[in-house]
Every structure is written in structure tokens, then in C-alpha cells.
Design goal:
InterPro entries: TRPC4AP (IPR022162). By secondary structure, the protein is mainly alpha-helical. The chain has helices spanning 2-5, 10-20, 28-50, 62-69, 72-85, 95-111, 115-120, 123-129, 136-152, 165-171, 174-188, 201-210, 216-225, 230-239, 251-263, 268-280, 297-325, 330-339, 342-354, 376-392, 404-416, 423-427, 440-450, 456-469, 475-482, 486-496, 502-516, 520-529, 533-545, 547-565, 571-579, 581-587, 589-601, 613-628, 632-645, 651-667, 671-681, 685-695. The chain starts with a helix and ends in a 29-residue tail after the last helix.
Length: 724
């Protein structure tokens, strides 16, 4: 049978493995048999990785299949778990045997479908695996296997179930802690978080109704924060310096090549060897690196690996910090990151490691999908930018991104403009800000201007800078960035650079909106740059090509125009109002109506997502400002006339009515969203609520109620979409 089925003697070897591993065995024979089995399985695993990770269905892996079929996987699990199952005195399995058991299990996981899932279903085994992490010799194999298992596990594990988690984490050295972060990232992230913007708000609201208690990911985040010294160690890991070999010209290429090699997790033994070598020769950091160029590549490998390691570790650490910054414990995390000087530490690494001069960025544009399969250099940059975005967003700690001199500059701007300093700026602890000639925000602006037009870094860079401006509008913050040429740079990208990436353009429109909102100097600068009709038309074409992407900018222009029109005693404002092509364009009522028609038309309740709900809020801003001036009936009537002209009576207004009912349902239960609306528009939330109530009024004689403009035959108001 063995010959006919080509089992390569695996069933017989397994029988021998079983018999030689009895309770009183000294495991010598067991280890010899396991090594023989391992050599039969590792070739398949190697071919699996070199075949560009073809899915298990496309390839057949008979040896690992046979090994599992005859109970090999179960036998290894039983062997590994023996210490937890019996108290009998017996010879202990040595580290090398444990290591080989773990490697064989990992090979089976990557080659034979179903093995990972069956291991994942055994909570006792998954939790027991963590105990092998206390031993440095078996740490990497264990970490790799756990990561694979958690990736397919249906129910997320609770970190508090891990025996003595706090002691385990405190026993790790920095390298182990960084590797452990890979495992942690699976346990603290909400499932599908990468696609968050694409989920409809209806579905998300329904989900939230069902899940009132904290999710497992949220519980795990709290568990981590309660481990003494955990955040402090992550900050040290994120900001520690790296010894850099600057003597080679093809250094980046070499990094990329070794990254591919590193990604093949079957070279764990080689990695361990390198780790051991590094521990033994830890003095290399201070050695004279100019001699590295003359050392052959094979001897230089550990040095190159060291830098790859450091970058990859930092990616994992920054990811964990980023998730914690966006969680429910945000303020607690913020306080710790400030206290442990994460931002000044990253600032000191910026030029040497994070944005090294020779990094090329002609990679594919990934948009918002941070799970892209790109090199560690690129992942590191994106993760760093995401961290900055989460750190600055609606939080007073954002001023830690500046140095003392730049903070003084902000104070001087406020003084000159005769406006009070922002409270958050006054409260900033000067001992925790960036040091050096430039703060982190200024360094970011410098590299942003050098980036090629369609580079996906631009998207994340713009998001990070925009988050610094978000919240209540600060004139001083805007002027600080305007002085550094940011407005001209954005306009160059939108109008002159030929940028085609929708993601990049959207992030630039949003940033431009935050930079210009209520700032008369910004509109003056805009007019200076957009100084021909041709340029202005290109700008309008870009805005009109996708209103979902540009509507926040449209909202900013409408709000700013409204404020400037009430400041006609100010000579400067009057001058800019009369000269600025953008303000003149938006002042024409037919243009505002055109935007309103399209904003209401491109969304409906079923297609609303976190990404396009802003179109609904922008259309509401237009109508709120009209209501303030007593023009609401005029706008509603214009919507009705538009419907009749398009031969679709009731279409726009019914849709808008449904959208507003959803708006009430969505926003009246959420504190954070309503604060954001109030801060970004400078319109009290009470006025938002009032306007929506007026528009949804049921009195057909009221000139401000939508219902008054829909003829009886075309009404769809009895269809309860939200109920559906």
C-alpha cells in the first residue's frame, strides 16, 4: 500500500514516533524519527513558498496530507501538551525537540488545508502554546505558529486567558516584544477594519445595536494597557536608534532582497542563528561601519538583517500603538505616549531611518488599504503616517509635533492678529515637545513637497497634516502652514501636476478645505496662484469630477463665503471678496444650487457610508445657511423645479427626505459625530437638529417643509426605509 500510494514510509515512521514517545521515554529515538519526518515535509513547505504561495487548493502536498491523515498532527499536539496533562515524573523534552515539533506543525499548516483551522479550534492548545514563548530558544517558532493559527481563528482569543500574561510580556527582551506585537495586532483590531469606509452606515448601525457590550478587541486593548510598563517599552522600541551601514550604494536593493528571504518563515533557524550572533557581538553598533563596504555580503548579512529587523519591528509596534490610539482608551494612551516622549523620539529618527534620502517611491498606489503587500520600508512609512494622523486628530497633544521655536511662532501669529492663543497651545508641556532644528510636522511638509505626483505616500502625508488642522478652526495653525508654502503646493498638485489618483486628490481637497476655512489670507493666496481663467477651469473640473471626493472643500468655500459676507466693515475682506475668482463663483446662487442638486442626487440611504455621508452634511450646510437668510423656500422650490425639468417629479425630494430621516436616526445617538459637525462648521448642533426637524415637518402648508414641494401622487413617505 505504501509503495502504491507513495506514502514514503510516513505511516510507519509515525507509528515509531508514537511508540518511542511513551511517558517514560527519554525522547532520543523520538527526536531521530521526527527529524526524518521533518526532512520529508520541509521540501514541500519550501516549494509552497517558492511557488509564490499558491493556495492549497491549487497545489497538492501529499506528504503533509499523509502525515495529518495518519494522526501526525494530533500526536505532536499531544506530545507538546504533555506537561499540562500529567504530573508524572518523566524526562523533559529538550528545546530542540520542541522546536522541531513546532516547525513540523507549521509546515503542515501552510501546506495542508484544514490543519490550521483544526488547531485553531482547540483553545486549550492555542493558550498552551504561549507558554513556549518564555523560552528564547523556542520563541520564534512558537510566535510564527500562533500568528498563523490566530489568523484563521473564528473567535478572537481573550488575552486575559493567557496564563500569567503580564509576567510573560515582562520576561520578553525588546526583540521578542516586537515579534509579540505581530500576534497582538490580530487580537486588538476589529475584524475588517481595513474596509471600514466601504460598509454602509445602515449595516454598521444595525451591528452597533446588536453589540452593546465592548468587543473582544476592546477588552484586549484594556488588558494590554494594564500590563505595567507595556506602553513605555513600546515607545522605547519605536524610537530606538539603529546602527546604519552607509558604506554601500546598493543598500536598499540588498534590503529588499533579504526582506523576501526573511518573509519565508522557514528560515527561522537561520534567523535564530543571526539573533544569537547579534547577541554575542552586540558591540557592532559602535564599530566603525565604514569598513562594512569592504566585507563580503555573506559576512555582512547580520548587519543588513539588523536594519531590516529594526524596520519590521517598528512597523508592528507602530501598528499596535496606532490601534490603541484609535480605541476607547484614547486619552489614557495619549497621556502615556506624550509622557514617554514618543513624538520627539520619532522626530530624531526621521531623517536617519523613517525618510532616508535614497528611498524610492515609485510603487503602486495602494490608497487606504494598509494591508498592502509591500516592502518593509514602504509599510514603515505608511504606518508612521497613520500614527501621526491618529495622534493629531481632534486632540490637544497635536502641538507636541512642533519644537519650542515653532510654538513661539504660533504665539506670535496670534499676537499679531490680535486673537487669543488657543488654550491647547498654552497648556502644552514644553518639556515633551520635539527638539532639534525642526519639529515633526515641519519635517513632514518638507518631504511631502518632494514626493512624485501619484505616490501613495501623498495620500497618507496629506491625511496626517489635515488631522493637525481638524477640530475647531485655528487661524494661527493655518497661517503656520500657509507660511511654509503648503497652499501653493496643494494647488500645484491639483492643477498642474497631472495627478490622476482619486485617493491622493481626495486627501488634498480635504486638506485644502481645512487650510482655507474662514481664512481670508488663504483665499488671497489662492487667487494669486490661480491667476488665469484656464487654471481656474482645471481646478473646477477636478472638483466636479468627483463630488464625493471634493465636497468637504465645497463646504469650506460655502461656509467661508457666508462668514466673509458678514464682515463687510473689514477692508481686506471686501477687497478679497471682490477679487477672488473662487468666492465670486460660489456667490452665484445658480452655482450653489448646481452643487446642491448633485450632492443630493449621488447618495441614498442604502448606499451611505462613512466616506460619502459628508455629501449629505454638505447639502445640509448649504440649506442651513439659506435658512439663516430666510431663503430656504427658494432652494426647496429650485429642487422641485429641477425634478420637473428632468422629468422625474418627486425623485430628488423623496430621496432627500429619506436621507434626513436617516440623519436623525444616526446623529442623534452619537456624541462624537455631532461634536465634529459643530467644530468643523462653527454652526451649533442645535441649529443642525432644528433645521432637519423643520425640513421634515409634516405640515404641507409650511414653506420650509420638504413635504410641501412634493405633489401628492409622487409621495413615497409611507415607505419606512429605516425599518427595512
Amino acid at each position: 500500500l505504501d509503495k502504491r500510494a507513495k506514502w514514503h514510509g510516513i505511516p510507519v515512521l509515525l507509528q515509531e514516533l508514537y511508540e518511542s514517545s511513551h511517558l517514560n521515554s527519554d525522547y532520543t529515538r523520538t527526536h531521530i524519527v521526527l527529524k526524518e519526518l521533518s526532512s520529508l515535509l520541509s521540501m514541500e513547505a519550501m516549494s509552497f513558498v517558492t511557488e509564490d504561495r499558491k493556495t492549497a487548493q491549487e497545489s497538492t502536498f501529499p506528504n503533509t496530507y499523509t502525515f495529518d491523515l495518519f494522526g501526525g498532527v494530533d500526536l505532536l499536539v499531544e506530545l507538546l501538551m504533555r506537561p499540562s496533562l500529567t504530573t508524572l515524573q518523566k524526562p523533559k523534552m529538550n528545546d530542540d525537540l520542541v522546536k522541531d515539533c513546532l516547525s513540523v506543525l507549521y509546515n503542515c499548516c501552510i501546506c495542508t488545508e484544514g490543519v490550521t483551522k483544526s488547531l485553531a479550534s482547540r483553545d486549550d492548545f492555542v493558550l498552551f502554546l504561549f507558554t513556549f514563548m518564555t523560552n528564547k530558544k523556542t520563541f520564534l517558532q512558537t510566535a510564527t505558529l500562533i500568528e498563523d493559527i490566530l489568523g484563521v481563528k473564528k473567535e478572537m482569543i481573550q488575552l486575559e486567558w493567557i496564563p500569567n500574561l503580564s509576567g510573560l510580556v515582562q520576561s520578553f527582551d525588546q526583540q521578542q516584544l516586537a515579534n509579540f506585537c505581530r500576534i497582538l495586532s490580530v487580537t486588538i483590531s476589529e475584524p475588517d477594519v481595513g474596509n471600514d469606509d466601504k460598509h454602509t452606515l445602515l449595516a454598521k448601525n444595525a451591528q452597533q445595536k446588536r453589540n452593546t457590550s465592548p468587543s473582544r478587541a476592546e477588552v484586549n486593548q484594556v488588558t494590554l494597557l494594564n500590563i505595567p510598563g507595556f506602553i513605555e517599552r513600546l515607545c522605547k522600541l519605536a524610537t530606538r536608534k539603529v546602527s546604519e551601514a552607509t558604506g554601500t550604494s546598493n543598500f536598499l536593493q540588498e534590503l529588499e532582497e533579504w526582506y523576501t528571504w526573511l518573509d519565508n518563515t522557514l528560515v527561522l533557524d537561520a534567523l535564530m542563528q543571526i539573533a544569537t550572533d547579534e547577541a554575542e557581538h552586540s558591540s557592532t553598533e559602535s564599530s566603525d561601519e565604514s569598513t562594512l563596504a569592504t566585507i563580503p555580503l555573506r559576512h555582512r548579512l547580520p548587519q543588513s538583517m539588523k536594519i531590516v529587523h529594526e524596520i519590521m519591528y517598528k512597523v508592528e509596534v507602530l501598528y499596535v500603538l496606532c490601534v490603541l490610539l484609535m480605541g476607547r482608551q484614547r486619552n489614557q494612551v495619549h497621556k502615556m505616549l506624550a509622557e514617554f516622549r514618543l513624538i520627539p523620539g520619532l522626530n530624531n529618527l526621521f531623517e536617519k531611518l523613517i525618510w532616508r534620502k535614497y528611498t524610492t517611491s515609485n510603487h503602486v498606489v495602494h490608497g487606504q488599504n494598509e494591508n498592502c503587500d509591500c516592502s518593509p520600508e514602504i509599510s514603515f512609512k505608511i504606518q508612521f503616517l497613520r500614527l501621526l494622523q491618529s495622534f493629531s486628530d481632534h486632540h490637544e497633544n497635536k502641538y507636541l509635533l512642533l519644537n519650542a521655536q515653532e510654538l513661539n511662532e504660533l504665539s506670535a501669529i496670534s499676537l499679531k492678529a490680535n486673537i487669543p492663543e488657543v488654550e491647547a497651545l498654552v497648556n502644552t508641556d514644553r518639556s515633551l515637545v520635539c527638539d532639534g532644528k525642526k519639529g515633526l510636522l515641519t519635517r513632514l511638509l518638507t518631504v511631502m513637497k518632494r514626493e512624485p505626483p501619484d505616490s501613495s505616500f501623498r495620500f497618507w502625508q496629506a491625511r496626517a497634516v489635515e488631522s493637525f488642522l481638524r477640530g475647531a478652526t485655528s487661524y494661527a495653525d493655518q497661517m503656520f502652514l500657509l507660511k511654509r508654502g503648503l497652499l501653493e503646493h496643494i494647488l500645484f498638485c491639483i492643477i498642474d501636476s497631472g495627478c490622476k489618483s482619486r485617493d491622493v486628490l481626495q486627501s488634498y481637497f480635504d486638506l485644502l478645505g481645512e487650510l482655507m476655512k474662514f481664512n481670508i489670507d488663504a483665499f488671497k493666496r489662492f487667487n494669486k496662484y490661480v491667476n488665469t481663467e484656464e487654471k481656474f477651469q482645471v481646478f473646477l473640473t477636478q472638483i466636479n469630477s468627483s463630488l464625493v471626493d471634493s465636497n468637504m472643500l465645497v463646504r469650506c468655500i460655502v461656509l467661508s463665503l457666508d462668514r466673509f459676507e458678514s464682515q463687510t466693515e473689514d477692508v481686506k475682506v471686501v477687497e478679497v471678496l471682490s477679487e477672488c475668482c473662487l468666492l465670486s463663483y460660489m456667490a452665484r446662487v445658480e452655482n450653489r444650487l448646481s452643487f446642491l442638486f448633485r450632492l443630493v442626487n449621488i447618495i441614498n440611504v442604502q448606499t451611505l457610508t462613512q466616506e460619502n455621508v459628508s455629501c449629505l452634511n454638505t447639502s445640509l450646510v448649504v440649506l442651513m445657511l439659506a435658512r439663516r437668510r430666510g431663503k430656504l423656500p427658494f432652494y426647496l422650490n429650485a429642487l422641485r423645479e429641477k425634478e420637473y425639468a428632468e422629468k422625474y417629479p418627486g425623485c430628488l425630494l423623496n430621496n432627500f427626505h429619506n436621507l434626513l430621516r436617516f440623519w436623525q436616526h444616526h446623529y442623534l445617538n452619537k456624541d462624537k459625530d455631532s461634536t465634529c459637525l459643530e467644530n468643523s462648521s462653527c454652526i451649533p448642533f442645535s441649529f443642525w437638529k432644528e433645521t432637519v426637524s423643520v425640513l421634515l415637518g409634516e405640515d404641507r402648508t409650511c414653506p420650509c417643509a420638504i413635504i410641501s414641494y412634493i405633489d401628492e401622487p409622487y409621495m413615497e413617505l409611507d415607505r419606512d426605509l429605516l425599518g427595512d
